Protein: Protein YjdM
Amino acid sequence: MSQLPACPKCDSPYTYEDGVMLICPECAHEWSTAEPQADTGKVFRDANGNELVDGDTVTVIKDLKVKGSSLVVKVGTKVKNIRLTEEGDHDIDCKIDGIGPMKLKTEFVKKA
Structure:
């Protein structure tokens, strides 16, 4: 029997395989065995210096005007399930309730 790697999130030794995915029963973290666990090099940080990853929930810390519209993203707006990108000026692709798809900069959000 082959030894499965420990969970990269909580270091639990009780991981199990489900197809090509590895799953941790303690923290419910799932990761693929096909994709390498190496970092891409760029680390995304919020306004407080906390590291951000895909799927995080963040809170807007400043009123942000929506370009080309009269809408404003208010302070305290929670944005769920963010996606981090390295293209262009903005680091976060997300969908905000009541506004729709947007791109944000990490300097205007904090990890929730």
Q: What stands out?
A: The first strand starts at residue 16 and ends at 18. DSSP finds no helices and 13 strands in the chain. The domain at 55-109 is CATH 2.30.30.40 (SH3 type barrels.).
